[in-house]
Structure formats: C-alpha cells, structure tokens
Design brief:
Blueprint (H helix, E strand, L loop, with lengths): L2 E5 L3 H13 L4 E5 L11 E4 L2 E4 L5 E2 L4 H8 L6 E3 L8 E3 L4 E3 L12 H6 L5 H8 L14 H9 L1 H16 L8 H4 L1 H10 L2 H9 L11 E4 L4 H9 L5 E3 L4 E7 L2 E6 L2 E5 L1 E5 L2 H8 L4 H8 L3 E12 L10 E4 L9 E4 H4 L8 E9 L5 H16 L7 E12 L5 H8 L8 E4 L8 H20 L7 E3 L1
Parallel strand pairs: 1-2, 1-14, 2-10, 7-16, 14-20
Antiparallel strand pairs: 3-4, 5-9, 6-9, 7-8, 11-12, 12-13, 13-21, 15-18, 15-19, 16-17, 17-18
C-alpha cells in the first residue's frame, strides 16, 4: 500500500488530506501538524454566548471553491450571509468616516451613480477615476499595485479607496504588491474590457453585493465548524498533532519524513506549509527552490475582539470601518461583529473586532492600541467587559513584485518525483484559493501514486 504524507494541518493540508482520502479510500495517508490543533488561522472561539473568529471571518462567494467544499461536507444548511446594511462599511480618512460607495467590485467602482455621490472623492477625483473609461490599455507586464491603480483611476482613488480596501489582505504597504500576483482579476479586467470600471460594471451584474449581504459567507457556528466537519471526514487518515517535521530525505523507494517522534516513509509528500518552513525542508534537496521560497516576505497579523454593553457605546454604522493609510491609526480596520453577523453576541452586547497587519506587539499592547483608535473615533471608550486577542506571527505572505517568478522557481521542486507544494504562499492568500490548491495537489498526488509506487509506512523513533 502506498502512503501519502501531508505536512501541515492548515486549510491547505486539511483540504488535501480530505480530498486524497475521498479520491482513494484505500490510500494510506498521514497528516502531520506541528501545533496542537488543525485549521491554521481558521479558529472560532465561543464563550458565554459570544462567538468570534480569531482569523478569517468569511469567504467570498464569487470564488466558489471554499463553499463547494462546505456543501460537499453537508454544511449547506449552515451557510449564512452578512446582515444587510447600507452603507456596508465606512472609510475613515483621518478626519471623518465616509461610506464606501455601493457596488464596489474589489476596489473598483461598479456603480456610476454611487461613484458620483460618494464624498470620499472630490469632483476632480471622480472625474479622474472616470477617465479610466477612455484610457488605452497598459502593457500586460506586471507593475506595483499602487502604480496600477493610480494609472487607471488616479491618486485620490488610490489613497482614499483602493489602499484602505486592499491594505488588510496581504499586510504591509499595498502599494508594493505585485498586481499580477495579488490582484490578477483587475489586470484581467483591463485586458478584456479595456477599463477597470467597465469591467466592474459587468461583474456587478453577476456577483452579490456587500450591501445586500450576498458577497461574503460564513457558517452559523463560525468557520471552525468547517474545520470540525473536515476533520470528521478523515476517518482512516492518521493525524499527528504536535509533530513538527524536522527533515525530508529523498530515497530510491520514495521519501523519508523525519519528525520529532521518529520518521515516516512515503511514496508522495505534500508540503502545505508557510514558505519559510517549506524552504527549510527543501534546502538540502532543491537549494534554488528553497532560496526562492525564503525570499517571499511575511508579515505579522492579529485580531482583538472587545465586548461592550451596547448602551455604553455610540451607534455604529454598517459592518465596520476601514482606516486610510498614513492617518495615524494603529488598526487596519474595525468590524462591528454583532452587526455584521447574526447571533455573534448575547442580547445587549456589542462585539467589536480590531484587525492588525504588519504590527508586532504583545497582547496587552494590541488591546491598548485598539482602544486608543476607538477613543479617537468615539471620543470616550468604556472599559470592555471581555477581550480576546489572537496573534499570527508571520501569518501573512506578501506578494511583492517578482512574486510570480519566485513561485515559478519554487515550483521546480515538484520535479522531485512525489513532491507537491500547496498553501497561501503561491497562488492566493484567501481561503478559497488555499482550498482549491490543496485539493488540486491532492488529486495530483493520488494520480502519481496510482501510476505505481512502492509501499511505505510509519516507523517509531
């Protein structure tokens, strides 16, 4: 019997193990996770009627791969959308909070009337954005995301709209991101429609909107329910938590995977790890791939959730607020969790979530920074009755210029027979992209094993 070893128990690794198990129930599979729990940054915490997400709180519906997996697991009846809100969210420009224009497609206006009415842009800024409808296509080569948006929509649209909306996805400075790597859909809009706005107008006809609650989806019991459902379908898969992998060895009959508890031999291996961890294992096997992986930068991220008696805080609008860059805020944005999702806080309580990226600080410091920013918004902030902090050290890969070339070099490691790479470091940081890649690599591994490879099994220390 051939053995597949999946290294990494985040959503890429979980999706890979589940998909491989379903594709070939007779296949021996091991799932190795360095930490005590599965799911990676998907972490739902419940406590005395509060339900909060330590990491991502939703998936986007227009990228179907996450929802398809949820439906496959029998979770369709638990899918929920955000509560309707108009406006759905605000952007604070340092002086005041202004509604995000309705009908946005990612960061591009998809409703001309909403663009005309928005106070986020001056009359000149709106006219400059509309010039996108007349500008010729740019070259298809890559460019920094800030340069791309400024070229198409102008500087005001970048600073007051696109930068706040995109800044929390990858962390760091969104202006430095690779457009082709981080936002290939926008480059495709320019290529196919000749204009971002024209393309966004077409997209809006096909997609849900923030305002109607149809753009984002979660599960009634939080995304942690998804992790539990996948884990429950891993019957027959040998799951090893608290088992860091210390080395990989290529052998004539396959692979030897060294762990803190001994080693396992396998015919195929899926590395579903952050880039730096994958680089460490690949260094003796494929130095150039390891070097490319080591050059993918990562940033810290964190969430701080605070519970307040609702009557003690000012009224809040929509689902939350984003902060414009360079205006002295510590947080990237706030989510009014109890107003975004149903049944996330007990009656009479408000649940506020602050999101940080690119900030390295201890839990107490993060809480104080969140409260300081709320004080700037509200004037006076009561002491929260409860607080929860989740920190993700080096949790966000940053797709800077040259990312596609680094990934191309890294993927050359897959020329080693039976080795496959998956995870957020390669083709998208969102949960749908991570799931899609994990499942695709699992099917490739199953096909590879089906061509005939020797049997392998775990060995104790």
């Amino acid at each position: 019997m051939s053995r597949l070893v999946v290294i990494g128990g985040g959503m890429a690794g979980l999706s890979a193990a589940y998909t491989a198990r379903k594709a070939n129930p007779a296949l021996a599979i091991s799932l190795l996770e360095a930490g005590p729990r599965l799911g990676g940054k998907v972490l739902t915490h419940t406590e005395d009627g509060f339900l909060l997400e330590g990491g991502p709180d939703a998936v986007v519906r227009y990228k179907p791969w996450a929802i398809e997996l949820m439906q496959e697991l029998g979770l369709e009846g638990q899918l929920v959308g955000t509560l309707p809100a108009n406006p759905s969210a605000l952007i604070h420009d340092g002086k005041r909070a202004l509604p995000i224009p309705a009908g946005l497609q990612m960061v591009v206006p998809g409703d001309l009337w909403a663009l005309a009415k928005t106070p986020l842009l001056s009359p000149f800024g709106k006219a400059r954005a509309l010039l996108d409808l007349l500008l010729p296509k740019g070259l298809e080569e890559d460019e920094a995301f800030g340069d791309f948006i400024r070229r198409r929509l102008g500087n005001q649209a970048w600073e007051r709209l696109a930068a706040p909306l995109s800044g929390g996805i990858y962390g760091g400075d969104p202006a430095e991101l690779s457009t082709l790597a981080a936002f290939p859909q926008l480059k495709e809009l320019e290529r196919t429609h000749g204009s971002l706005i024209r393309g966004a107008l077409e997209q809006r006809k096909k997609r849900g909107t923030r305002e109607a609650g149809g753009l984002f989806a979660s599960l009634r019991g939080g995304l942690g329910t998804w992790v539990e459902a996948i884990t429950g379908e891993l019957e027959g898969v040998q799951v090893y938590p608290n088992t860091p992998v210390t080395g990989l060895e290529r052998r004539p009959e396959g692979w030897r995977v060294y762990t803190s508890q001994g080693y396992q031999e396998a015919a195929a291996v899926i590395l579903a790890l952050p880039a730096s961890a994958a680089a460490r294992l690949l260094e003796p096997l494929h130095p150039s791939a390891a070097q490319a992986l080591g050059e993918i930068p990562y940033g810290d991220s964190a969430t701080v959730s605070l519970a307040f008696p609702a009557e003690k805080i000012p009224p809040r609008v929509g689902h939350g607020m984003l902060m414009a860059a360079g205006q002295g805020f510590h947080v990237r944005g706030f989510t009014w969790t109890d107003q975004k999702w149903a049944a996330r806080a007990p009656q009479g309580y408000a649940l506020v979530r602050a999101y940080f990226s690119g900030v390295s600080a201890h839990e107490a410091e993060l809480t104080q920074m969140a409260l300081a920013d709320l004080e700037r918004l509200w004037g006076r902030v009561p002491a929260p009755e409860r607080r929860w902090v989740f920190r993700w050290s080096a949790g966000l890969p940053r797709y800077t210029l040259g990312h596609l070339q680094r990934v191309q070099v890294a993927m050359e490691a897959e020329r080693l027979a039976g080795l496959f790479l998956a995870g957020a470091a390669y083709g998208g940081v969102g949960l749908p992209e991570v799931v899609r890649m994990g499942r695709a690599k699992a099917l490739q591994a199953v096909a590879f094993l089906g061509r005939g490879t020797p049997s392998a099994a775990p060995h104790p220390a």
